[in-house]
Write a structure and sequence with these properties.
alpha/beta, about 45% helix
Length: about 80
């Protein structure tokens, strides 16, 4: 069965810090597919740093909500299911 990794992508202090941590996790777990859950900002500023250094198949799913944690949780849960 293919291994899928689902990662929420934030912005961190300088984008590089979050990208580095996510890249480390991807390399450690070696998934077949990665789903990135991004906001408009993290999709534009952090995701490109990550995706230039990976060779795994990936998809990015963008969400508009960034402040309502409960709404974000249910949106992510819907995507995961």
């Amino acid at each position: 069965m293919p291994k899928t990794m689902i990662i929420t992508v934030g912005t961190g202090r300088d984008r590089q810090d979050i990208a580095k941590a996510i890249l480390f996790s991807i390399k450690q777990h070696n998934p077949d597919l990665v789903w990135f859950l991004v906001s408009a900002i993290s999709g534009e500023e952090t995701l490109p740093i990550i995706t230039k250094d990976i060779s795994v198949t990936y998809e990015a799913k963008k969400f508009e909500e960034i402040n309502d944690v409960e709404k974000i949780y249910f949106e992510y849960l819907t995507q995961i299911n």
